[in-house]
Amino acid sequence: MTEQEPTADLVIQARRVHENVIADPMRFRSAAADLVGRARRAGDREALVLALRALAWAERARLADAQAKILLDEAARIARRHRLDHALGDVLLSRAAVNQELGRMGSAQRDLDLAGGLVAVGRAVEVRFQRAVLHQNLGRLGPAATAYRELLARSDTPARIKVIAGNNLAMIDAQVGRYGEAFRHLDGAARRAGQVGPALVAMVLETQAWATVQAGRLVEGLRLFEESARAHEAAGLPLGEHFVEYSDALMDLRLLPEATAAARSAADVFRTMGVPLMGAEAQLRIAQLAMLLDDPVAAERAAATAVESFGRQDRTVWKARAVLVRTEARLRAGSVDAADLRRARHVCATLTSAGLASSAVHAHVVAGRIAAKLGRVGDAVRSLERAAELATARPILVRLLGRVAAALAARMSGRRGETLANCRRGLRDLARHRAALPSAELRALASGHGVELGQLGLEVVIEAGAPRHVLDWMERTRAAALLAVEPAGSRDIDDDLAALRAAYAEVEAMTLQTNRGPTAETLLTRQATIESRIRRATWQRHTSAGPAATPIGVSRLRELLAGRILVEYGILHDRLMAIVVEPRRSRVVPLGTAGTPAVHLRALLFALRRLTESRPPASLAAARLSADHHIGTLRELLLDPLAVAPDAELVVVPVGQLHGVPWPAMHDGPLSLAPSARFWARTRTSAVDRRRARRVVLVEGPHLPGATAEIRRLHRLYPDATVITPPHSTTAAVVDLADGAGLVHLACHGLLRSDNPLFSSLILSDGPLTVQEFQARGAAPNRLVLASCQSGIDVSYAGDEVLGFVSALLARGTAGIVASTAAVPDVAAVDLMCALHEGLISGRTLAHALHAARATLDRSDPAAFVNWCTFTAHGAA
């Protein structure tokens, strides 16, 4: 094309390129840039204006709004200078959209007002559409929804506008709780988007994912977010807005580190690209997440930034949301006053008038808590009762908050029965929600939504004073996520499990070489990426897990205990207690401040770790004195007040950090642990049902001299056992042999992952066998001995949940496990393990066999002392 090219053709091309850019901005951006150059050379002012507008829209799509505005400002100047009124109107419409994203709502309004008198008659629809978008961004949802419905009903509305109008109307419907309408509009928008282009397909998918999460279908929403991310990447679009809305889904699933990372990624993108509109929304998510992570200082700081941004943008509803987080952070920090109560009430009014009932529930709860803190009980009860009323028929997490509000209001009014009834209903709702989640990780995290309901109910039953009611209530929340077990199935993660083992092998190989191959940081990043893929796959499975089992009655529990004593620990606020179920009576025993045992536990574990190291005799002696001191102190804190016989057989159900206590070191009789009384009872029944499983499997892991001697000696005790040794002791071989076996003994290294216990692992010949893989394969021997470091540590979660090797295998049906709560010396464990198995062969349970085996150790030897302390029986077998 030369400078003599007909200018009419350039104008036509400019309009066509603009439409193409709207449909697929990354693909046609270069065409728009090329057309700008051609229009300049040809001196065609109208074509240049329209080409600059097209290029600006492509810049906006990649979040370069500042650059887009520069291009649109130039286009507007040229159009004004040459009196190209229709073209100027079009440019002002585009600039209004960019100004909104830049947070300049007043400028956007002025552009729209000017554009309304300039655009061609056929473009009036575009003006109405842009006004609706401005209403929506300002929080005027009613006028925005009305305008979108009118646009969808008009026959002259372009397909592109119908797609976005349907998409945006669905967002409004979802916000105000009209989910059926929202999905109907999204179905229509999705059909039209496929005819327009990939950018709009990605946009609609994003909204479908977000609305699905808002409706309470969290797992389906996660799957749609994955699809949306792929659609954005295929269209070459940035993921900033995706990260903002994805963080909402992760937040509701209590995947808080992942949600925080997504929100921060979004904030970084919008800050770098200069998009204040979405940047403020990302900042609000960061504030909300800081609250959930119990960091009110960071929450108040982030919320204050969001308040300022929304204020500059004249976004009243969004500002109210940020004010609510800032006020709640002040409440959590204990610094609220009457002004905060007034602000919270104003937020309640703003959100309610905007039709955002779900958000208003949270606001009324915060207002109620502030009023209670200020001693205004009547005001607090009214706010909380209003929250409970608004929460009716809302999505599950909003209903749960409504149950908390109703329970708090009843508690403040002295209505104990009503308090307990609301807590029961809330926990039943939570149980149904939890059972529908597809993985143990998500179910364990979901229990965090019920913490306050559990505490309010426990407070009431303790006041009532009946120990059996206290035990029943504690059992409602204890390890409840593990009672619903997903079916076996690993095909969707098999390749990633193999890749994870390969990454582990590379890390191992790297330790044997210098200055060759990838760096440790690269390998660890690759490993983290693979783990993330595995987790995401398990989050999105279709689940068929059944509902959790009902609590076990005290009479049936005593029958199964058969003379044993159950000790179940619990925490109410910051106070530790224990329920003691004996053959003829039950008791509630207060035990003091919950944090005190944790201090001594940390010191004890440090001393035990020192005893496993090669140190001078004086250093080992000091470590032993320290260990003895802290064992004695823990006994005084946790067991002595219970006044049970020193040689009684105990079944201990820990809570929180007490899962890491080396309990056998504190008690002179046989002892076993369980995640809950229900779990122990189930293993007791399982132990009886599976007596016929006689197959014994002995497994030697790599790089452990003690393991070789251990397996050889055990083979002499079990001459008919199946024995696998390196290089044949692979993950696949172990899982296949373990499933359904009567007894499996694993002598191998163990690695604890406190950051993600489902990736805690046993090291076999081809790499790590993780908890995740054991769960996915569905393997469960009747009895299991894990002669490896830290294999017995279950990591505790909010809501009295635990995850780890022991809990995962007990959930799968294993009836008894022996494992260690700390690092153990290799060779020194051989004698203990052989003595243990001699007891099992003679017909003893794991608890009795381990108790007898520990008595054979020479505790003056540091390594033997560590083994004496840390190996523990779990379950009843």
Would you give an account of this structure?
Pfam families: CHAT. This is CHAT domain-containing protein. This protein is of the alpha/beta class and 877 residues long. Among the domains are: 7-87, no CATH class; 316-468, Serine Threonine Protein Phosphatase 5, Tetratricopeptide repeat (Alpha Horseshoe), CATH 1.25.40; 494-539; 671-875, Rossmann fold (3-Layer(aba) Sandwich). The protein contains 38 helices and 16 strands. The strands form 3 sheets. Strands 3-2-1-4-5-16-15-12-8-6-7 form an 11-stranded mixed β-sheet, with helices on both faces. A hairpin with a 2-residue loop joins strand 1 and strand 2. Helix 2 (25-42) packs antiparallel against helix 3, helix 6 (105-116) packs antiparallel against helix 7 (124-137) and helix 11 packs antiparallel against helix 12. The mean pLDDT is 91.
- Beta-strand portion reads 5-15%
Taking the alpha carbons of the first and last residues, their distance comes to 86 Å
Approximate helicity band: 55-70%
CATH third-tier fold name of one domain: Rossmann fold
Assembly state: single chain
Organism: Virgisporangium aurantiacum
Protein name: CHAT domain-containing protein
InterPro entries: CHAT_dom, TPR-like_helical_dom_sf
Pfam family, one: CHAT
Summarize the structure.
InterPro entries: CHAT_dom (IPR024983), TPR-like_helical_dom_sf (IPR011990). The protein is an alpha/beta fold and 877 residues long.
